[in-house]
Amino acid sequence: MATPEERTTWKEHPGVWVDLEKAEVFVAEDRNEIIGFLCAQKVYHVEHLVLFGGSKIKRSRAAIQLYRSIESFIRNPLTNRDGIRQIFTFTRRAPVKAWSDRLGWTRCFKGAAMFTKFF
User: Fold this and answer.
1) Residues spanned by the domain of 26
2) Apex CA 24: angle with CA 36 and CA 110, to 5°?
């Protein structure tokens, strides 16, 4: 595990886009020489969306509201005491893929239904 001093030193390293203070940082060493590090960032993995009866428009509105409720929870430091600031989701549902832009999600991989969002 990285020390607080190492985390501070590496914070400005090009290619580091996670908050090293909030991530678990693992270090590779060889004879006390640091070779590299790998971050394990804490995220909320959000799935499985379950919708019950109702019209198509009611289900659509309910689904978007559920996702927005989760986002509101994550943004609020009074409710999100873990400090996790990222959402990750995987979906096969065409409507959810269509909502991804409206919800501000970023597709993780081209052609894959994996999305993420940072707050």
Assistant:
1) 4-40
2) 75
pTM over 0.70: no
Q: Is residue 38 within 8 Å of 7, Cβ to Cβ?
A: no
With a CB cutoff of 8 Å and minimum separation 6, the contacts of 13 are none
Whether 52 and 79 share a structural domain? yes
Give me the residues paired with residue 27 across strands.
37
**Do residues 49 and 26 lie in contact, with contact meaning Cβ atoms separated by under 8 Å?**
no
What's the pLDDT tens digit per position in 33-92? Answer: 888 888 787 888 887 788 888 898 898 889 889 989 999 999 998 998 888 888 888 887
| Cβ-contact 23, 1 below 8 angstroms | no
Count of domains in the chain? 2
Q: Are residues 94 and 59 in the same domain?
A: yes
